[in-house]
Amino acid sequence: MSPLPIQRRDQAPAHQEHGCTFRRVLPWDHSGPSDTGMGICTVPPATRTVPHSHQDLEHFYVARGKGRVHVDGEATDIGQGDAFIIGAQQVHHFETPDDHALELVSIWSQTPFGTAG
Fold it and tell me: Where is the Cupin type-2 domain (predicted)?
C-alpha cells in the first residue's frame, strides 16, 4: 500500500449538482459544504447547467472538451487546458455544444490562489 493517500475519481460518489454530474474528490468522506475542496464536474453534450452563485471562490481547470462559461451575463468560450476563477457571489453556468462534453476540475476556497501578488 502506498504511503500517499489517494482519492480515485471513479471511487468518488457521483451526484447531480447545478445541472452537471459532480464528484467530490476532496475532502474525503464529506458530502456537505467545506471551506476548501475539489471536485470533477462533467457536463454532457447539448447541456446548459443551472445558473447559481455561492460565497466561495471557484477555481476551474478544463480537463477535457469545450463549451462556454457564462459569468454575470458575460459569455466566454472555454476548452481543454483553460483555467479561470469565478469570484464569490458571481452568477455562473456552463453550456456545451451538441458534439462535445465538458469535464472541469473545480477547486473552491474562501480566498483566491494562483494570482500574482
Answer: 40-108
Amino acid identity for residue 68 in this structure: R
Give Cα 21 distance to the centre of its chain: 10
Is 12 domain-assigned? Answer: no
Report how many domains make up the chain: 1
Q: Is there a domain that residue 11 lies in?
A: no
Give the DSSP letter string of 9-45: GGGSPEEEETTEEEEEEESTT--S--SSEEEEEEE-T
- Say how far apart CA 44 and CA 96 lie, in whole Å: 7
Cα–Cα distances in angstroms (integers) from residue 113 to residues 5, 64, 86, 106, in the given order: 23, 22, 12, 13
The whole domain housing 50 covers 21-109
- The reply to whether 25 falls in a domain is yes
Q: pTM value? A: 0.85
pLDDT tens, residue by residue, 92-101: 999 999 999 9
